[in-house]
Amino acid sequence: MSDRKTLSSKQKIMLLLSAAFLMSTVCFYLIFSVVYKKNIRDIVSSDMKDNIFHIREYVELIFENADNVASIFTANAFLQTYAQTEDAQMDRMEIRKFDELLKTIGASSDMVDAIDIYIEPHQMLFTSDYGATSRLDPDTVGWFNALMEQDFKNRVTTDYREHIHYWNTRSQDQVTILRPLYSSVLGKKIGFVAVNINCIRFSAILAGMDGPNNILTDEGGAILMGAVAADAEAKLADLAFINDYSPEDALFYKKIGREEYIFSRSWLPYPEWNLVSFCSIKELMRPASQLDRYLLILTLLNLTMAGITVSIVLHGLFGRLKKLADQMERLKHGNFKVEVLEAGKDEFSHIFRLFNDMAEELNRLFNENFRLELLHKDAQLKLLHAQINPHFIYNIFNNMNWMLQLGRYEELEDLVDAVAGYYKLSLNEGKMMISVKSVMENLKQYVRIQKIRFRGRFDCEFDLDDSILDLELMNHMLQPVVENAIIHGTEPVCGHTNILIKGFCREDRLVFLIKDDGAGIDKERLIEIKEVLEKGSTDGKGYYALSNVNERIKICYGKSCGLSIYSKKGCGTTVLILVTKYPTIQDLYLNNIRC
Fold first, then answer.
1. How far is CA 539 from CA 13, 209, 240, in A?
2. What is the value of pTM for the model shown?
């Protein structure tokens, strides 16, 4: 081992991170110092204009929503009728309906806390949160009557709540929009609508905006609500000076004491309030003032050195990593014969050697596992296929015994001849795969056997596309399904049944349909059959033939293939068999499988 010391990968990464951190820190302060000092006023002015614009949109939206709510009741038919009718003559049900309507409208608006409607002729107050009441104390009635005498179209006030003494749960800090109600017949004022908005909604908007302090003031400059920093609250207790500027939106600088502030002001014509944002120039400039020209020179030198160092380290480090990444990409796509040629004694060289050993071991394990998997599937297919023949032979001998007992010797002779023809076709030199054409000829012999037994109680129709006749199919795949259609579809039915065997091709799939109009399957039994097919095990429930066929299909063609059964009691059964054009196991391997 060489005595020469080299930087380890860990040291290189630490050097890289240190250089990157230094570079990012220096760049941040450099840009902050140069750009922020030069353009601070323009940047802050633009931000404050945007800030005040968004706040104004939200505030105006609240007032617009409240005004729309008030407008709903200005020409309400019930209120017009109620104001001109004696209280005793008014249907209480109508009052209750209006009360429910008011509650519904009040609850439907997220921005409105409560709606009050005062009808002066009856001294009746309808509220969206507490219902209707005519039991108003004299002070409240007097204040309401004083409002009735005032001439206003729309009025915004913050002292409405303090004159209402009935509902302690209502917030004391509310902004109320008042709109008078006029009689459409008499033309005189009959009451007013009061839409109440909790001040928390305005405060949340003002406090939720990032950046400077945000407040709402009245015409005289008195602060109504808003978020003001503690150190600025005493200095800005009186903002009357903002009215010295034009009513339009304004941006200006104001020196208060020894400190300069930047103000952004927007005039709200309704309800004649000022929306003001402000911040201290000193606070904005404080971070930038900490940097000077010496720091700039120093950071430029460090930046140059860090850049050179990082370039050298990255060139060597990522050049070696790229070799490993290329080989890993090849390994990802199944090429196990990969190797990273790297001479060295550091950590990456050790990783490369481990990678080479891993690729070699993966190649060995993959080949071994593939061979074992083929042998396992071979054994499974042979076992499942062996289970089909005894099942069929049992049924044949059972049929022959039945005919002997009934003395049907001529039919027995035909049955023996048909069985001989069937097995002559089904032997297929012991191969697992036979052509679709041969499968259908074999099925026709089998149908002939069953027609002898059932004395023509059913008809079987074959409908196959010519394009699939030369394709190969797993032997004894369709016969057990056709047998089920005959035994369980035809035998329980007294009348004549029909069976359709249909085969066609859809893209890369072969589809076979075995459909009968026989007895069908009840719902509970159908569920049980589907569970057996899904689990791949009968668990003593029966249905061995269907389960056998389904498992053989999945082993030979893949998990996406198999049987699907659709049936209804008394309406027949349809079995859908879906396989690929070619098995998932290699063709060469399949050709060597024997029954």
1. 60, 67, 90
2. 0.43
